[in-house]
Amino acid sequence: MRLLLLAALLVPAAAAQQGEAFIQQAEQALGSSAQALTGASEARGALSAALLNGSSDQNVAAVAQLGFGNVVDVDQTGSGNVLALLQLGSGNEFDLAIDGTGNEFGFIQTGGTNAFLGTVAGDDNSVSGLQSGGGNSYELVLEGVSRTDHSVTQTGGGNGAIQIVGSGSRPVDIVQTGGQRGLRIEQR
């Protein structure tokens, strides 16, 4: 439910120019700040500030990037945080590190050669994603977690997915369509 709300927050980003990011951050009441940003480094800094904002719990952030070669790097700590990401274009990268409990993360990447790299530590977290286009990659490492849901759907040719899960993790959910795809699942 919260991720659907965040998707609605991403709609204004459709009007952004190539290479811009739109971030709307809210604490529990939604609507404490909104800003349009240009450049990947500005987006990274603003997203980190939005997620931490004096407290590492109960934060909500949405990021949309249009264009090519965008990078978002997020370290999310605490509990009850929600993050949604939309990247439209090719050659984009999203790096995520979650350390805490009860956090929700969802992403959509469309275009070719996009990458998602994630690490999750803590229990009761949710990570889900969709990658469409060819040559995309997804790698998620779950470090000693339990009751964490994680899934990805990849459409298009030449996509690859890797999930490395610790004991106690829920079953992996990966759906791939298209030719020449690669999949590796490892349980430690």
Instruction: Please identify the structural class as seen in this structure.
Output: mainly beta
Low-confidence stretches: 1-42, 50-54
Order of helices and strands, N to C?
A: HEEHEEEEEEEEEEEE
- Average per-residue pLDDT, rounded, comes to 75
Main sheet properties: 8 strands, mixed
Helix percentage: 10-25%
Q: What's the alpha carbon Rg, rounded to whole Å?
A: 16 Å
Q: Based on CA inertia axes, which overall geometry fits?
A: globular
The percent range for strand residues is: over 45%
**What's the arrangement of strands in the largest beta sheet?**
2-1-3-5-7-9-11-13
Terminal-residue CA separation: 32 Å
Record field, number of beta strands: 14
Overall tally of structural domains: 1
Number of helices: 2
Care to describe what's here?
With 188 residues, the chain is mainly β. Residues 1-42 and 50-54 have low confidence and may be disordered. The protein is 12% helix and 52% strand. β1 and β2 form a beta hairpin. It has helices spanning 2-10, 40-52; strands spanning 20-26, 33-38, 60-66, 71-79, 82-88, 93-101, 104-110, 115-121, 126-132, 137-143, 149-155, 160-165, 173-177, 182-187. It has one domain. The chain contains two helices and 14 strands; from the N terminus they run αββαββββββββββββ.
SSE inventory with pairings:
Elements: H1 2-10, E1 20-26, E2 33-38, H2 40-52, E3 60-66, E4 71-79, E5 82-88, E6 93-101, E7 104-110, E8 115-121, E9 126-132, E10 137-143, E11 149-155, E12 160-165, E13 173-177, E14 182-187
Parallel strand pairs: 3-5, 4-6, 5-7, 6-8, 7-9, 8-10, 9-11, 10-12, 11-13, 12-14
Antiparallel strand pairs: 1-2, 1-3
